[in-house]
Amino acid sequence: MFLTRSEYDRGVNTFSPEGRLFQVEYAIEAVKLGSTSIGIRTSEGVVLAAEKRATSKLMVNDAIEKISKVDSHVAVTFAGLIADSRTLVERAQIEAQNFWFTYNRKIRVEDVTMSVANLALQFGDDDVKASMSRPFGVAMLFAGVDQEGPKLFHLDPSGTFIDCLAKSIGAASDGAEQNLKEQYHESTTLLEAEKIALSILKQVMEEKLTSSNVEIVTIKPIIDENGLLLIAWLIHLHHSPRCGRCFRRLINEDSLANHGG
User: Fold this and answer.
1) Residue 11 domain-assigned (yes or no)
2) Is the residue at 6 inside a domain?
3) Rounded CA separation 156/246 (Å)
4) What is the CATH number of the domain that holds 45?
5) Are 206 and 55 in contact (CB under 8 A)?
6) Proteasome alpha-type subunits domain: which residues (predicted)?
7) How many structural domains comprise the chain?
8) From its phi and psi, is residue 174 left (phi > 0), alpha (psi between -120 and 50) or beta?
C-alpha cells in the first residue's frame, strides 16, 4: 500500500512512486525566493554579481553579504536561506585551508565545490550518520581561477554541481538565464562580462540598481614572468567613493547600450 502525499512530504529520504523527493524539490523552490545572483566565465577570468535585497529600511545594508571569499582564488555567491549558506560557505573555507596546509598548494575550484556538495547530501530522518535533518535551501555559484583556468560551478540543493559558462540563480533566474543565453558568447571579455551581469540585474531587479544594492566581484589570474599562476585578484565594487565611481562607469547608459540596459 502506498504512502499518502503528506507522508512522502515528511520523509526527506523517501522516494514517491513517481521517483520524486519532495523535500529536495521544496528546497529548490526556496532558492527561487532568494535575491538574484549571476556568474559569467570568460577566458580572462570570472565575474560574480549579486543583488543585495534589504527586507527593511532599518537594516544596515553593509551587513548583507551575498558574495564571500573562500580563498584567494575562489569566491562564492548564493540564493536562498542565508543561514544555510553560511554553513556551506564555512565548509568551503575550511576545506580550502585544510588543503593548503596539507599539500601546500591551492585547492581546485571543482574540488572545493565537490566538498560542499558532499555536505549538501548528508541529510536524513533516520540515518545516525546524517548531519542535517533536511536539505539545504540554497543554491550556490563557485567562481575562481586555478591551474586549469577560470572556473564556474553551480551547486543546487540536491547536491548536484555542474561546470558552467554562465549561470543565474534566485528569484529572477529564469529571465536572467534567457538574457545570458542571448548575450553571452565565447569571445566575451571580462569587462564585457561585468557589463552584461550588471545590465541583466538592472532589468530583473525590482529596485533601481545602485552601487549599494549590488555586489560584483571579478576574479582573474596574475601570471609571473615564468607563466606560473601566483594568485587570483579579487575586485569588490561597492559604495565606497573610489569604487562607486568605477561602478557608475559600468552602469552608465553608454556602457550598457549594447547589452540591453
Assistant:
1) no
2) no
3) 32
4) 3.60.20.10
5) no
6) 8-30
7) 1
8) alpha
